[in-house]
Amino acid sequence: MSRNTADIGRALELLREGLGPFVEREVERLRLPRNQIEDFIRSKSPRDVRDKLRKTPIREWEVYVLLNLMQERWPEVFGTTLGRMERWFVGETQEWRNKWAHQQMRMATDADVDRALDTTVRLLRAVKAETQAAEVARLWESRKAANAPMKGTLRSSSGAGPRSSVPAHRPPSRSAPVSQADEIRRYAIENYVTPWRESGNETLAIRAGDVEREMALRQATPNVCSALEGRKFQDQANLVLVSREGPRRSTTTTYYYRQI
Asked: What tens digit of pLDDT does each residue of 23-43 get?
């Protein structure tokens, strides 16, 4: 097993330890009806998984189940405590967990893993799981120390470890580089998709030129359009592209989506 795979596995264990009590507490605080929990459990397969969930306290569920429950019941339960950025952390962590489960971490770079650990720390701190957050932060620091002789010491903008507070739009850092397309998708989810879901409107409209202007991008219209019409964005945001209005890949191009 590679170090990247092992480190993500350990971070996911700590995430489960910290997230489980929070999820259980929020479900009980909001008195989520048992039939809604049962509907969620029935969506899981095979049968032995459903039976195990029924017999196990929520705090002891596997991390992927906890994350799925948070996503599915965000508006009425978890969104009453956490914000839009924390919802993005949940979605990003789901992606890393799925890659880890399907043994795809061998293709991840050190910077990819550093970002995954950073996001895990942020999510744990958001749910007040400080003990587990500190453990993941120490794991992140040990990776930096081990890599320092080969890469040189990189000083992050947050000091000694992952930041505890996050701006509305997190730009890529030297320790966690991401593509412009990733940033566009992230921005659209945080600033368009999440508010739209909270509004209750049936259709979401995103104009390419608005995204380009708000993100202060230069001559990036083709990239913005490519990101907004791509399958990856639709999958991440749980949307389906219904139609496109205006010229192809123009600042006036508007994309219309609905929820899957």
From this structure: 999 999 988 888 889 889 988
CATH of domain 180-259: 3.30.1370
Specify whether the CB–CB gap between 247 and 253 falls below 8 A: yes
Alpha-carbon span 84 to 168, nearest angstrom: 8
Prediction pTM value: 0.58
For residues 25 and 214, give the distance between their C-alpha atoms in angstroms, rounded to a whole number. Answer: 37
Contact 250, 224 (CB under 8 A): no
Which residues, 6 or more positions from 125, have their beta carbon under 8 angstroms from its beta carbon? Answer: 133, 164
Phi-psi region of 238 (alpha: psi -120 to 50; beta: other; left: phi over 0): left
Per the CB < 8 A criterion, the answer to whether 133 and 125 are in contact is yes
- Token digits of residue 208: 């390419």
Structure tokens at 246: 């205006």
Burial of 68 (0-12, 13-18, 19+ CB in 10 A): middle
- Radius of gyration over every alpha carbon of the chain, rounded to an integer in angstroms: 19
Task: Give the pLDDT score at 47.
Answer: 83
Bond into 75 cis (ω within 30): no
- In this predicted structure, the answer to whether residue 215 has a pLDDT above a threshold of 60 is yes
Q: What is the pLDDT of residue 161?
A: 41
Indicate the SS3 state at residue 74: coil
The segment(s) of the chain belonging to CATH 3.30.1370 are 180-259
The pLDDT value recorded for residue 178 is 61
Q: What is the pLDDT of residue 160?
A: 37
- Cα 5 from Cα 161, distance rounded (Å): 21
